[in-house]
Specification:
Length: about 210
């Protein structure tokens, strides 16, 4: 069983491609989209604050609204859904909710009571730049897991950074504490993605010190 899981994982990460051409006749049920997101939110996050927030766009009219915001990328309309991934700079405000639930699942109460106040003090005094960076990093972690979860269910995806943050914020009335991280379209490929190379490992990896290229 372990070998089968390993083989499936290694195949999965090699077969996943960024797909930009989708079959517009394919839909994904709300139940299955929720299942993909349930897998995605198992991703790690800073202090387990889970700052990711999602807007699932699967209504045709809303897709048309999103398309020009996403620089008229056709996959926004043709894919089954596009997930707007946001990062919450004020995720620490849900710390009590998260850690009370952790206690219910077995975390010792004394561990929770010792950690949460110190953690809250750190996040409340965090600079705007650091808060934004943390939300974006954690948003990237959940986004990659989301795409792998989609692929494991037979769906294709593409992450998009090419969109107007300002127009997205305005159109979807996104409050200032939420940071747009990326858009992810999900569906079934109408045609394969283009072959893409990866740089050799020794071109991007250093051991124990960063050496000059």
């Amino acid at each position: 069983m372990t070998q089968d899981i390993q083989a499936n994982f290694f195949n999965l990460i090699r077969e996943r491609q960024s797909i930009r051409s989708y079959d517009p006749s394919v839909t994904i049920s709300e139940e299955e989209l929720k299942a993909i997101l349930e897998d995605a939110v198992l991703a790690p996050s800073s202090s387990n604050l889970q700052p990711w927030r999602f807007i699932v766009v699967n209504d045709p009219a809303v897709k048309e609204t999103l398309k020009p915001i996403a620089n008229n990328q056709q996959q926004v309309v043709d894919s089954a859904a596009t997930i707007i991934v946001l990062g919450d700079k004020e995720a620490y405000k849900r710390a009590d909710e998260i850690y009370d639930r952790s206690v219910e699942l077995g975390m010792p109460q004394e561990a929770r009571d010792a950690y949460v106040p110190r953690m809250l003090e750190y996040y409340r005094t965090m600079s705007e730049e650091t808060a934004r960076s943390t939300a974006e990093i954690d948003g990237g972690l959940v986004s990659m897991q989301l795409m792998l979860a989609a692929k494991a269910r037979g769906y294709d995806s593409v992450p998009m950074g090419g969109f107007s943050h300002e127009r997205l914020i305005e159109e979807f009335k996104i409050p200032s504490h939420l940071v747009p991280v990326m858009l992810i379209s999900i569906g079934k490929a109408a045609k394969p993605g283009l072959p893409k190379s990866r740089m050799a490992l020794d071109r991007v990896t250093y051991w124990n010190a960063l050496t000059q290229e």
